[in-house]
Amino acid sequence: MAARRAVEVYLDLLSQPCRAVHILLNCNKIPHTVRTVALRKGEHRTPEFTKLNPMQKVPVMVDNGFVLTESDAILKYLATKYEVPEHWYPQQQERRARVHEYNAWHHSNTRPHAAKVFILEVILPAQTGSPVDEGSLNRALSQLDDTLDKLESMFLRRQPFLCGDDVTLADLLAICELMQPLGGGRDVLQQRPKLQLWRKRVQSAIGEPFDQAHAVLYSLRDRRRAKL
Ligand SMILES: N[C@@H](CCC(=O)N[C@@H](CS)C(=O)NCC(=O)O)C(=O)O
Fold first, then answer.
1. N or C: which terminal CB in the chain sees fewer CB atoms within 10 Å?
2. Which residues have CB under 6 Å of ligand 1?
3. CA dihedral 220, 35, 25, 197 (to 10 degrees)
4. Residues 6+ apart with CB under 8 A from 112
């Protein structure tokens, strides 16, 4: 019988959804191999990678020949296949539905709004050499503010984590997204004590894999700070 190969994941840790996958794997000691795809070098556009994911995006997971894209799908697959502790992706139908509820909302709220701030402050100026477009940045910050309001008033209204009393896949997706603007030196939770407490809870529930996944982002922040 052919030996089972460890899960392979194609990641760039400057990518928010890639960090979520990296954290779940490391928190749960799921044997895996990381194949780095450096987005800044265009490695996601090579013929080999395009064959794996015609959408030319990371993360991608390969488990014994089974190729899966989309962080949300990858996280759920790993959580069910590798029987991680139940709190990540609860079995009970209604609690699981809460995770689905946040994750569906995430992809048109937390994700685009936090990512846009990072794109406007870090990516576009680096690509074009132009200064930050302050008008666009202010609009993006105001959209993000609206999302942060909803995170506080809806998802964290009566509970310590987004979907209940313990950390779930939803918190993982959210925290990785909300950390991203830190790469440009901006802590988007600075004026948000409730969300800051949530971040602390998530960080301490995750432990070391949190900083491991974010090391590249911290070093981007520190390099930019040193240039000021
Ligand atoms: N919905 C996808 C989004 C994946 C995605 O947008 N990945 C970005 C990095 S954060 C990427 O690969 N971008 C490369 C490109 O679009 O050229 C997921 O959650 O996995």
1. N
2. 15-17, 39, 44, 56-59, 70-72
3. 10
4. none
d(CA 20, CA 33): 15
Q: Which CATH number is 53's domain given?
A: 3.40.30.10
> What's the N-to-C CA distance of the chain in angstroms?
58
Q: How many other C-beta atoms lie within 10 A of the C-beta of residue 40?
A: 10
Is 26 part of a structural domain of the chain?
yes
| Closest C-alpha among 30, 27, 29, 35 to residue 11 | 35
Asked if 8 and 35 count as a contact pair (C-beta separation under 8 A), the reply is yes
How many domains does one find in the chain? 2
Indicate whether 62 and 155 sit together in one domain.
no
Question: Is 213 part of a structural domain of the chain?
Answer: no
Please check whether residue 78 lies inside any domain of the structure: yes
Contacts of 44 (CB under 8 A, 6+ apart): 12, 37, 53, 56, 57, 58
Atom of ligand 1 nearest to the CA of 115: 10
Q: What is the mean pLDDT of residues 19-24?
A: 98
Residue at which a domain ends, from 49, 84, 119: 84
Give the pLDDT confidence score for residue 29 in this predicted structure: 97
Give the global pTM: 0.97
Q: Atom 3 of ligand 1 has which residue's CA nearest to it? A: 70
pLDDT tens digits, 36-62: 999 999 999 999 999 999 999 999 999
Range of the domain at 133: 89-207
Atom from ligand 1 closest to the CA of residue 71: 20
